Structure to design on (279 residues):
């Protein structure tokens, strides 16, 4: 399946893939997990491939971000991945449908079997090494444009947050409840929810780091979201960042609100403000 995605990226063919992450590895189970983050952000077939990765957290966002995924796919002529989890793939919920739909028409580059597209060619083969390198340079410029313009995040109580909780998909819902509970107890916690896992929304996060005492990454994987955070920090050439702490589960077990509250409470009581190198 990844060979096909790599082909589409090389041929600049739009497409939307919905990946509902479940417990693994191997056959695993159908419970919710977040173990495919590296696959979506870093492993879409051979070659230097990249695709926008959207991470919804509610049924409404599953609808809204899927619609947006098609717009982005055609805007950049590149596949887009909607990355959900086992709960989002199985739950039911009320969603608001759009009042109107727009028929987009055919782009000028499309192959449609008519005279207008007769000389159009969509393929993913360059037997000349120089030609293929030039095509890769073109794709890299497109990736850079995406990184600059398509970072998305949802912030909850982050403006004055001493403790930033980073979570996405279903775990973000537990994290939001934990932040609300902590706020009621006087702890200045905030939820930073990446809506794009690639590109990671580091521009929005950077503005919060100067005052934060620490970051807690909450995820249902063994550090795959934290790795995206650390990589994004290093690419910004940050000499420091607040200490990064982790709350992780795997195999279909999700982090719980009470665990997040306990972890932030313990970090706050330690009264230590530590910084680590992000380079």
């Amino acid at each position: 399946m990844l060979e096909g995605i790599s082909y589409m990226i090389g041929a600049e063919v739009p497409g939307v893939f919905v990946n509902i992450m479940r417990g693994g590895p191997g056959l695993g189970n159908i419970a919710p997990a977040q173990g495919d983050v590296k696959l979506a952000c870093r492993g879409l077939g051979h070659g230097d491939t990249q695709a926008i990765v959207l991470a919804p957290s509610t049924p409404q966002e599953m609808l809204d971000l899927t619609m947006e995924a098609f717009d982005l796919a055609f805007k950049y002529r590149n596949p887009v991945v909607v990355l959900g989890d086992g709960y989002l793939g199985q739950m039911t919920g009320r969603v608001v449908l759009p009042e109107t739909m727009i028929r987009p028409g055919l782009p000028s580059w499309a192959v449609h079997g008519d005279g207008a597209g007769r000389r159009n060619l969509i393929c993913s083969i360059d037997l000349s090494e120089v030609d293929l390198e030039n095509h890769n340079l073109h794709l890299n410029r497109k990736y850079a444009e995406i990184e600059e313009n398509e970072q998305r995040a949802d912030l909850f109580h982050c403006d004055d947050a001493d403790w930033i909780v980073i979570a996405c998909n279903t775990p973000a819902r537990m994290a939001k409840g934990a932040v609300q509970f902590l706020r009621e107890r006087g702890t200045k916690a905030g939820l930073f929810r990446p809506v794009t896992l690639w590109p990671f929304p580091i521009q929005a996060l950077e503005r919060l780091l100067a005052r934060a005492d620490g970051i807690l990454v909450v995820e249902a994987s063994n550090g795959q979201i934290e790795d995206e955070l650390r990589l994004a920090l290093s690419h910004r050439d940050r000499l420091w960042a607040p200490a990064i702490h982790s709350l992780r589960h795997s195999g279909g077990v999700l982090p719980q609100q009470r665990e997040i509250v306990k972890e932030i409470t313990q970090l706050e009581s330690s009264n230590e403000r530590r910084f680590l190198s992000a380079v």
